[in-house]
Each structure stands twice: as structure tokens, then as C-alpha cells.
Write a structure and sequence with these properties.
2 domains; about 240 residues; 12 helices; mainly alpha; single chain
Length: about 240
């Protein structure tokens, strides 16, 4: 779902649409390599002229297409009403392409969470002492795979796996660093449950007043969600710390 707000004193050309375009740009930039190009309209250069935020997309295939059309020189002589017409036609094409191919986004989500679940399985095996070295190697491989994914929450899941692997290996400092990297990314991706799990594990490792504060915050989240058996949830979603 895309949303936007406009404010009376904004000065962007299309202030009601601009926040939506910002979200579109973020969404496209988070797609796996090579997949964003499938959604882009033929008149991309015009769209980027009207909505400049689309002109600096760091997505494979986008920059080369934009460079093929010198924006300032080629579009300066187009009448404003024609530029607007073409831009919104291109926007309609972009949204239509996204609407027609929802499975592409879903497949990326399935791939990411499949990697995460496999990493969790390997981490749980390592924590239980089942062929620990091999299980830890597998955990790190899945974490590395997640770190390379373009979906914004994928690296957060990779950091969480690395934190567990470090904890199993007795590397407390490394585990804390990985948790510190994971927590804000999980919060940013609205993965509140996993952020609470990571925060709880960080509290256990940190100790002292800081640790107690983190534990209280995570317990408050679990209580608000109606989670009764917190330890069981932690063992399932953030294993390796006990």
C-alpha cells in the first residue's frame, strides 16, 4: 500500500503525489537485482523529469536507461502540459506493471523468509550441540545470503542470525554488535516481534541497568501481544543465547 500527504506550504510541482512517488522509489530500490526493471515505464526519462527523486535510482538497469536520454536537453522544449501528460501516462504504466505482477514481490518475500527459517534451523541445531561446527557454518551462509538481499528487512534478519551464531560460539562482543545492527533495522521494517526478541537477547547479554531496561521493554511488548510463554518464543525466534 502506498500513501502520501500534502501540506499547504509545500512547493513541489505535484505535492499530493510526491510522497507516493517517494515510497515508490523506496520500494523499487529494495527489489532484488534486475527485478525493478520489469516495472519501469517506457517514458522513464519524462517521469524522472517531473519527479526528480526517480532520477537517482540505484537499481540495475535504471541508471543506464536514464543516461540514454539527456533530460535537460531533450525535454526542455516540450510544452508543460505535454510533459505533464506524458509523465502521468508513464506513472499509470508503472503502477499498472506493479499491479499486474504482484507475485514477483511475493516471491522475493518467500525467498527471504525461507533463507531465514533455514538459518534458524541450523542455529537451533548448533545451540543444541548437533554437529555444531557444520551447523554454525550453515547459519553463517544463510546470514550472508540474507545480507545480499535487497528487501530492506533481509539484512536485519541476517544480523539476527549472526548474533545467535556468535552467542553459540561464546563471542559476546560480536553478538552484541550484531544485535545492535539488527534492532534498528527490524524496527524500521515494522518487524516488532523480532525486534523485541533481539532487544531481549541484547538485554540478557548486556546486564546492568541497560540490560534491565531492554528486558522490561521487550517484556512489555510481549505482554501487549498476549504472549504468555516468552522463553519458548525466544528459543524459536532468537535461539543460541542460552
Amino acid at each position: 500500500m502506498l500513501s502520501g500527504r500534502c501540506y499547504e506550504r509545500e512547493t513541489v510541482p505535484f505535492k499530493a503525489v510526491d510522497p507516493v512517488v517517494d515510497e515508490l522509489r523506496h520500494w523499487l530500490s529494495q527489489l532484488p537485482d534486475g527485478e525493478a526493471g520489469r516495472f519501469l515505464p517506457a517514458d522513464l526519462s519524462v517521469l524522472a523529469r517531473v519527479f526528480p527523486v526517480l532520477g537517482d535510482l540505484e537499481v540495475a538497469g535504471v541508471s543506464s536507461r536514464l543516461k540514454a536520454y539527456p533530460l535537460e536537453r531533450a525535454l526542455d522544449h516540450i510544452e508543460p502540459h505535454e510533459l505533464r501528460r506524458r509523465a502521468f501516462a508513464a506513472m499509470k504504466e508503472l503502477l499498472g506493471n506493479i499491479w499486474k505482477a504482484p507475485m514477483l514481490w511475493q516471491s522475493a518475500m518467500v525467498r527471504v523468509f525461507s533463507c531465514y527459517e533455514r538459518g534458524l534451523s541450523a542455529l537451533s541445531a548448533a545451540a543444541a550441540g548437533h554437529d555444531r561446527k557444520r551447523a554454525l557454518d550453515a547459519t553463517q551462509r544463510w546470514a550472508k545470503t540474507l545480507m545480499k538481499e535487497k528487501l530492506r528487512y533481509a539484512p536485519a534478519l541476517g544480523h539476527l542470525l549472526r548474533a545467535g551464531a556468535s552467542a553459540v560460539s561464546g563471542e559476546r562482543s560480536a553478538a552484541l554488535l550484531a544485535l545492535e545492527a539488527a534492532i534498528p533495522r527490524l524496527d524500521d521494517a515494522d518487524l516488532g516481534y523480532l525486534a523485541a526478541c533481539a532487544r531481549h537477547r541484547k538485554g540478557e547479554l548486556s546486564g546492568g541497568a541497560t540490560g534491565r531496561e531492554l528486558l522490561e521493554r521487550s517484556r512489555a511488548f510481549f505482554l501487549a501481544q498476549g504472549i504468555v510463554n516468552t522463553e519458548r518464543c525466544l528459543a524459536m525466534s532468537a535461539p543460541g543465547f542460552t
